[in-house]
């Protein structure tokens, strides 16, 4: 709605890309300080939660008299599934959906858009989760496990895709919630069931029919299975269909960006 | 033209959920170097216009064009309280694309004499110092369009003597937009005055005419309130 006339400007105006680049960098640094500037329980929890999960899994599968998960040791299984799901998908979803709270504190700066806050928070999360993954990975290596994926590049691609899915879904949810605030709570409640329906705690190979077919309608199952297949070369997923997943992702992102384009001003105005 | 508003309208939803039209099909043009005063009672949309010019609010319809950089509202920057003043400054510099943090930081601590407070968290800075720093932050950056909303609070006579000349300097360099609720506060420097009533908006380029019009609007509206049916 706002245009910049080319003549009459005393100061040099920056290109839209230059503004966005500097805004995202500024926000990332600011969010880092806000989150880690002081000692908080959350700082430790980032590292503790996946560690506890691993101990829990080892305990569970150990108690059943099986030292391993059929094809892989429990700690590595958790490392390759729970950590990406929580740290990339759920974080991507959370950061996009909470971005509006942060943005409302920055609404006096016209350069800062809602999308910039989402991107900055997501970038920050990727950095944090990478550090957590490195620490746990070193720990696992020290204990004699092999934490390095068999196909590294493909695994990274899978991780990127699950992050993008979380981000895109968060974008859609945030924008839909601008029509009715109550939807926000509903979307937040989806988080827990998704954790159990997305093949995070089990590989699809242990799921019997007909549940296997039912579960494979969930696009996230395919992302998790793709990561698993690439991470552990000897695992072959019975359901993996990346075309289905990519179609979902394109649909989610198109819908999200279209809604954002339509609604973001309404969002800023409403707050 | 430095600022061009074309058919701007904006409505707000009030507590009862009803829409209240604040700006209706408003158009005006402000040339570079001119100063705009927006004169009106509370609730007539003064701040809304400033925010729309500043790009932090958006019209429901119509468009706004500006021919240069635009400031945040003078001395109304919001700070992150868990970050030091210097870090807040860095954040703003990054947002604005200013690379020389040290120069801005030196300017602010020289101007205010609050060098040690610069290293404190914003949350632990005293209220008086916050006001001074907020003022200094606005003075440290140059914009083509400077926005003011409400009277400037200098916080003490000593501060006023020190900062008022600097604010005047800004008025020489930039196109300023300010809001007023009292006609007498509109200074000689304002070349354009936008007078807002409950249902009307009119741009005057003479201060005298604008003050006259504002008084008329006030009398009319007060009269219509008294004479209108009781609700």
Description:
The complex is a heterodimer of chains A (271) and B (231). Chain A contains nine helices and one strand; from the N terminus they run βααααααααα. With 271 residues, chain A is mainly alpha-helical. Chain A has one domain. Chain A is globular. The N terminus of chain A is likely disordered. Chain B is α/β, with parallel strands linked by helices and 231 residues long. Chain B contains six helices and nine strands; from the N terminus they run βββαββαααβαβββα. In chain B, the strands form two sheets. A six-stranded mixed sheet of chain B has the order 5-6-7-3-8-9, with helices on both faces. Chain B has a three-stranded antiparallel sheet with strand order 2-1-4. In chain B, a hairpin with a 5-residue loop joins β1 and β2. In chain B, α3 crosses α4. Chain B is globular and about 55 Å long. The N and C termini of chain B lie far apart (45 Å). Chains A and B meet through β1, α1 and α9 of A and β4, β5 and α2 of B.
List the topology elements.
The complex is a heterodimer of chains A (271) and B (231).
Chain A: E1 2-4, H1 16-36, H2 41-63, H3 74-104, H4 114-142, H5 152-177, H6 182-197, H7 211-215, H8 219-231, H9 242-270
Chain B: E1 3-13, E2 19-30, E3 35-40, H1 46-54, E4 61-66, E5 70-73, H2 85-96, H3 101-112, H4 127-140, E6 145-147, H5 157-173, E7 175-180, E8 192-196, E9 201-204, H6 207-227
Parallel strand pairs in B: 3-7, 3-8, 5-6, 6-7
Antiparallel strand pairs in B: 1-2, 1-4, 8-9
Helix pairs in contact in B: 3-4
């Amino acid at each position: 709605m706002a245009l910049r006339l080319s003549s009459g400007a005393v100061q040099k105006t920056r290109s839209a890309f230059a503004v966005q680049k500097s805004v995202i960098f500024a926000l990332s640094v600011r969010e880092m300080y806000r989150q880690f500037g002081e000692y908080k329980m959350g700082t430790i929890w980032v590292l503790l939660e996946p560690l506890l999960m691993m101990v829990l899994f080892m305990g569970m599968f150990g108690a059943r008299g099986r030292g391993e998960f059929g094809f892989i040791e429990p700690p590595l299984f958790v490392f390759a599934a729970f950590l990406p799901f929580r740290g990339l998908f759920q974080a991507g979803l959370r950061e996009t959906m909470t971005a509006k709270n942060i943005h409302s504190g920055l609404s006096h700066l016209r350069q800062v858009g809602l999308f910039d806050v989402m991107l900055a928070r997501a970038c920050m999360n990727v950095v944090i989760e990478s550090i957590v993954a490195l620490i746990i990975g070193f720990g696992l290596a020290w204990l004699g496990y092999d934490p390095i994926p068999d196909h590294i590049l493909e695994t990274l691609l899978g991780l990127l895709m699950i992050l993008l899915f979380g981000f895109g879904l968060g974008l859609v949810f945030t924008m839909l919630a601008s029509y009715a605030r109550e939807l926000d709570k509903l979307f937040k409640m989806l988080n827990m069931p998704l954790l159990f329906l997305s093949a995070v705690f089990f590989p699809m190979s242990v799921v019997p029919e007909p549940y296997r077919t039912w579960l494979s309608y969930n696009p996230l199952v395919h992302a998790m299975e793709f990561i698993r297949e690439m991470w552990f070369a000897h695992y072959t997923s019975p359901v993996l269909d990346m075309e289905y997943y990519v179609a979902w992702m394109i649909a989610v992102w198109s819908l999200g960006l279209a809604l954002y384009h339509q609604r973001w001003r309404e969002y800023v105005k409403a707050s | 033209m430095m600022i061009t508003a074309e058919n701007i309208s904006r409505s707000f939803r009030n507590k009862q959920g009803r829409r209240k039209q604040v700006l209706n099909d408003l158009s005006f043009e402000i040339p570079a170097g001119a100063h705009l005063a927006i004169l009106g009672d509370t609730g007539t949309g003064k701040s809304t216009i400033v925010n729309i010019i500043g790009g932090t609010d958006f019209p429901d319809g119509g468009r706004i064009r500006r021919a240069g950089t635009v400031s945040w509202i003078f001395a109304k920057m919001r700070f992150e309280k868990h970050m030091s003043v210097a870090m807040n400054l860095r954040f703003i510099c990054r947002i604005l694309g200013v690379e020389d943090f040290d120069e801005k930081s030196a300017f602010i601590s020289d101007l205010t004499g609050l060098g040690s407070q610069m290293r404190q968290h914003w949350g632990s800075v005293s209220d008086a110092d916050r006001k001074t720093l907020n003022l200094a932050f606005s003075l440290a950056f140059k914009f083509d369009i400077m926005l003011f909303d409400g009277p400037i609070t200098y916080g003490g006579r000593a501060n006023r003597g020190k900062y008022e000349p600097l604010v005047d300097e800004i008025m020489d360099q930039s196109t300023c937009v300010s809001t007023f609720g009292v006609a007498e506060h509109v200074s000689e420097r304002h070349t354009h005055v936008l007078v807002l009533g409950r249902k009307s908006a009119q741009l005057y380029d003479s201060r005298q005419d604008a003050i006259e019009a504002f008084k008329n609007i006030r009398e009319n509206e007060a009269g219509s309130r008294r004479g209108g049916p009781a609700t």
